[in-house]
Write a structure and sequence with these properties.
It contains 17 helices and eight strands. By secondary structure, the protein is α/β, with parallel strands linked by helices. It has one domain (11-183, 190-348): Metal-dependent hydrolases (TIM Barrel). The strands form two sheets. The chain has a four-stranded parallel β-sheet with strand order 1-2-3-4. A four-stranded parallel β-sheet has the order 5-6-7-8. Helix 10 (216-224) links the parallel strand 5 (207-210) and strand 6. Helix 5 packs parallel to helix 7 and helix 16 (314-327) runs antiparallel to helix 17 (332-348). The structure holds adenine (ADE) and zinc ion (ZN). Residues 30, 32, 181, 209, 232, 290 line the site of zinc ion.
């Protein structure tokens, strides 16, 4: 199953499996809109908005994308986000991402945004939300449906999360769910139990980043205290067999981000990633891009990187796409329609999967 690092994409049959996976209809459920800010757009928005950056050029910015860990990435990510100032900026950012998503065969996206990153700089909450929502609406022309998930920054306090939620409450119809992101180590989900209880009382679903750098205990807390419906990353779940049993039995999805995990040194190289093991443990795993502008690519780049490291079968790629629809926040009729279109796609390509896998 594990490919030798120097081995290429392999035989023609294997190459066609990669193409099959890139072309399949799928949902992306773990992408931070601020993480789609490409160096070119950072530079042009910095010029347009008169924002001074520590990086003189696109090349300098690209060169800075070498990370030791999550925190070293977040430092750059928050610095670059400072170029986003107007509703139009957020709109253009969203539309640029959706164009790339559509080109990757994505039919549905659930997108994180971090309002505290912007309100702390004096940008109105409504400016951020309106721009992103308008962008998501424009994406319908591309055949994409979308959801917006507002994240609380866990390096800030729960009191600050409550203040962010107070800003969101008048606009709840435009916010589909809530999540928890930013620096994981030393910031367990338990520190945010009350604010997520309030989120649930408002009728909104919860997700949480857990088990990226943090221990399996953080995944238990996200499930038991925050009542998270999905775990973002969750790759460290495999260290705890009882947790794996719980996740398998409850079909709680893990939104795994392979290129992110390698770039942030959660795994030393792609061949060391545990995605095949997660999949073969029966977990509801999905593949996602996290912060594609910083980590070397969008969803199909992640697929190609995984395919370059492991011999995943056509049936395993099918399961990954089917999981993405299973894990999406849509009604059953929509889920079934997408799953049918996935079955038809695989059958057309010579890999009948319906009723299997
Ligand atoms: N914010 C953006 N990307 C993140 C990641 N990979 N982990 C935690 N917070 C993030
Ligand atoms: Zn993330």
């Amino acid at each position: 199953m594990r490919r030798h690092a120097s081995e290429g994409a392999g035989t023609t049959r294997e190459k066609s499996v990669v193409e099959l996976a890139c072309g399949m209809p799928k949902a992306e459920l773990h992408v931070h809109i601020e993480g789609t800010l490409e160096p070119g757009l950072v530079m042009s928005l910095a010029r347009r908005n008169g924002v001074a950056l520590a990086y003189p050029s696109e090349e300098a910015l690209r060169a800075a994308c070498r990370f030791r860990d999550l925190q070293s990435f977040l430092d750059l990510y928050y610095a670059c986000a400072s170029v986003l100032r107007t509703e139009q900026d957020f709109y253009e950012l969203m539309v640029a991402y959706l164009r790339r998503a559509a080109a990757d065969g994505i039919v549905h996206v659930e997108i994180f945004f971090d309002p505290q990153t912007h309100t702390a700089r004096g940008i109105a909450f409504e400016t951020v939300l309106r721009g992103l929502r308008r962008g998501l609406e424009a994406g319908r022309i591309l055949g994409l449906s979308g959801r917006l998930i507002m994240c609380f920054l866990r390096h800030l306090s729960q009191a600050e999360a409550f203040a962010a939620l107070a800003q969101a409450e008048p606009h709840l119809e435009a916010i589909d769910g809530f999540g928890l992101d930013s620096s994981e180590r030393g910031h367990p989900p338990s520190q945010f139990a009350e604010v997520f209880a309030r989120v649930r009382s408002l009728g909104r679903p919860v997700v949480a980043h857990a088990g990226e750098e943090g221990p399996p205990a953080y995944i238990w807390e996200a499930l038991d205290l925050l009542k998270a419906r999905r775990i973002d990353h969750g790759v460290r779940a495999l260290e705890d067999p009882a947790l794996v049993r719980r996740l398998v039995a409850s079909r709680i999805p893990l939104t795994v981000c392979p290129l992110s995990n390698v770039r942030l040194r959660v795994f030393p190289e792609m061949t060391a990633h545990n995605l095949p093991a997660l999949l073969r443990a029966g977990l509801c795993v999905t593949i996602n891009s996290d912060d594609p502008a910083y980590f070397g690519g969008y969803l199909n780049d992640n697929i190609r990187a995984v395919a370059g490291a492991f011999h995943l079968s056509a049936a395993e790629w099918y399961v990954l796409a089917r999981n993405s629809f299973e894990a999406a926040w849509v009604d059953e009729a929509q889920r079934e329609a997408w799953t049918r279109s996935l079955d038809e796609y695989f059958a057309r390509q010579g890999y009948p999967m319906a009723g299997r896998a």
